[in-house]
UniProtKB/TrEMBL annotation:
Signal peptide: none
Family, similarity comment: Belongs to the FAM32 family.
Region called Disordered, residue ranges: 1-35
Cellular component GO terms held in the UniProt record: nucleolus
UniProt protein name: Family with sequence similarity 32 member A
InterPro entries (UniProt xref): FAM32A (IPR013865)
A Pfam family recorded for this sequence: FAM32A
Length: 112
């Protein structure tokens, strides 16, 4: 029994733990009104839009270029979305059938 007299009794304490905040004690968050939160979000979006207008230093050519890029991107997406996976696989198989046999992987067999 003399071996265990130096053992600390009681709960374990974490290093750097503040003024007795344990795992069971948590700070309560202040309840905010949902309308107030929505109002803040809307006002922040309006402010961002105003900043974008004021900070838009692009030339008309740059603006037109970006619009065309977005338009082409949308066309690519719609083109890919128009076919199902099954249709794409069938098209790919048709393409492979038209290729010459040169591209086929030769069968390797050590027994024959």
């Amino acid at each position: 029994m003399a071996d265990y007299e130096a053992v600390q009794r009681g709960p374990l304490r974490l290093k750097g733990g503040g003024a007795g905040l344990g795992a069971g004690k948590r700070k309560k968050k202040k309840a905010k009104d949902k309308a107030q939160i929505l109002e803040q979000i809307v006002s922040s979006k309006k402010q961002e839009e105003e900043k974008k207008r004021g900070l838009d230093k692009r030339t008309p050519a740059q603006v037109a270029y970006e619009k065309m890029q977005e338009k082409r991107q949308m066309e690519r997406i719609l083109k890919k979305a128009s076919k199902t996976h099954k249709q794409r696989v069938e098209d790919f198989n048709r393409h492979l059938d038209t290729l010459t046999e040169h591209y086929d992987i030769p069968k390797v067999s050590w027994t024959k």
